[in-house]
Amino acid sequence: MAIAGFIIAGPAAEQIFGMQSPWLRSWTMFSAIGLGVIDASFEIRGPDGALVPLDRFEILGASRNGRLKWIQNREELASVIKRLCTVAGQGADIRVRARLGTRGGWQAIHTDAENACAD
Question: How many CB atoms lie within 10 A of CB 19?
């Protein structure tokens, strides 16, 4: 009973009373989930001038369960953008919106303000 009371006291002390203590630890679930994850979306300008969603798996002929599923870092994002621009051809206008998961929330790392293939 004493052990059960100790286990329950940690989260209760913080959640109910707002008290933090090194002796009564609260429970933390998933504290690092999503850190470093890059969420990216791609659009390409069509012949009529409208931006349409671009499926990176389809245009690159890649498996949806393969390596292209998770973009791990900025260098990998740059590599994907370069491959998309190469496949889309000369003069392609691809817009990329990408954000990085941080402890403070999502951080924009690429905006769709400019043509990513112009770099």
Answer: 11
